[in-house]
Model the fold of this input.
Amino acid sequence: MADPRIIDIALDEATILWRNADIEQERRIAIFDLIEENTFKPLRAWEAGHLGPYRLKLSVDDGRLILEASSEEGAVLETLILGLGRFRRPIREYFAICDSYYQAIRRATASEIETIDMARRGVHNEAAEMLLERLDGKVDTDFATARRLFTLICVLHIRG
Done:
């Protein structure tokens, strides 16, 4: 029976050099939400008869995002490599707006926090749309899954 979803996601810990408590919380939430509800269908694996569910490992190497999709048992089915050049600006913007958001939570008014959060969601949504474009023809997924994957891509870019 077809089950096109991610059941486990791992980040290459060697890629992550540093993260603070706020970023660690974002990572945990993104992974939890992603596992709870997602749509993920790597097309080459699907066409070869591997109908899910999938394990996914994310890493960054030499400016490229590597998505390694494996079977439920752990056998690698497909490795996708995406250039991250187009994501540099949204990643920088997302980090900057998140820093403002975390600072605002500690000392700003509710209205100020809401304004910053709206801007943060806007950057996040644009980046998710860009990720959907980059995955087109490679992976069928939905907007919510792309948003959570973008959060995890950002975690992989933290340099301290």
